[in-house]
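User: quick one, sequence for these tokens?
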């Protein structure tokens, strides 16, 4: 951690793995005046690349002499998954999803220890006046609608109200009231009194540079909200935050989808068919509610309990 005002430092969080170490890259920029802390986290899933590229570009554009406070950028949260271009840590180690392992465990499996180191960095630097942004995309297996969201929990708390304003400042049209999934970084932060949001861009396993620019513009606008950028006032996205319904597979097999992003569906509509290795239908996946498709699986090979789709529920969560 750097303590010299107007300074920039690159370093690694070190996680012991037998005789070796996992090195998690961190870029830290400390402005020339005191202020709040903004933590930007990329690469918790190893097949998502837009957020990492966003932080690379942001680092090149930041001038410590023109900002207040501290900006901490974790550019690749799970190097083991990134090396294998995988959503999860390779099964050789523990096969866990880092984005579901917070706050982690210093004595646990390798993914839990990675989560512990990232969480320790956050708690050492963040409190109720700071902000954590967890940046994601659809990766290799999914195509997402662009969303900025807060967890559907503690909605009247100071940390969630601040998170709502931060989500609006990302300037992403779709605002999401995300399910309060245990082990996610944003839910863990909210439970500990730290404002936090989660964001998604499309994905499909490559870098869409338009999505990088969307993230970059949003983060720069958030910096005006948090006081890191001393010039100008932040813009914000108006509109409602919507809840979503997650559709999971009950069987493993091959999925053929009947819908795509932004397509409206009614309760009982066919979302996809899952076939076995002989091409025989073993499951018709139906929509549990009416709404609009906000995410769809693009990899036809599915396992049990994997996400097939997310549906925006028409009833708004918060205005």
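Assistant:
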């Amino acid at each position: 951690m750097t303590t010299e005002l107007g300074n920039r430092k690159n370093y690694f969080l070190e996680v012991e793995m037998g005789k070796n170490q996992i090195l998690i890259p961190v870029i830290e920029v400390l402005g020339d005046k005191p202020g709040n802390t903004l933590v930007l986290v990329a690469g918790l899933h190893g097949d998502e690349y837009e957020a990492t590229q966003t932080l690379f570009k942001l680092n090149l554009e930041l001038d410590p002499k023109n900002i207040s406070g501290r900006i901490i950028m974790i550019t690749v949260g799970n190097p083991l998954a990134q090396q294998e271009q995988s959503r999860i840590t390779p099964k050789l180690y523990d096969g866990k999803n880092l984005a579901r392992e917070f706050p982690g465990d210093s004595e646990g499996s390798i993914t839990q220890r990675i989560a512990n180191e990232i969480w320790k960095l956050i708690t050492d630097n963040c409190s109720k006046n700071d902000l954590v942004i967890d940046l994601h995309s659809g990766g290799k297996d999914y195509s997402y609608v662009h969303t900025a969201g807060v967890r559907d929990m503690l909605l009247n708390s100071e940390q969630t109200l601040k998170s709502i304003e931060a989500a609006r400042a990302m300037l992403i049209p779709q605002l999401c009231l995300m399910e309060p999934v245990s082990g996610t970084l944003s839910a863990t932060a909210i439970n500990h009194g730290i404002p936090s949001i989660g964001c998604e861009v499309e994905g499909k396993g490559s870098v869409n540079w338009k999505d990088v620019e969307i993230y970059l513009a949003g983060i720069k606008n958030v910096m005006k909200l948090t006081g890191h950028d001393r010039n100008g006032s932040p813009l914000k996205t108006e509109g409602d935050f919507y809840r979503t319904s997650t559709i999971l597979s009950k069987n493993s097999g091959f999925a053929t989808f009947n819908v795509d992003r932004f397509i409206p569906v009614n309760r009982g509509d066919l979302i996809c068919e899952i076939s076995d290795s002989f091409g025989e239908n073993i499951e018709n996946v139906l929509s549990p509610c009416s709404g609009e498709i906000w995410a769809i699986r693009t990899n036809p090979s599915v396992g049990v309990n994997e996400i097939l789709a997310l549906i925006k529920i028409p009833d708004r969560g918060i205005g």
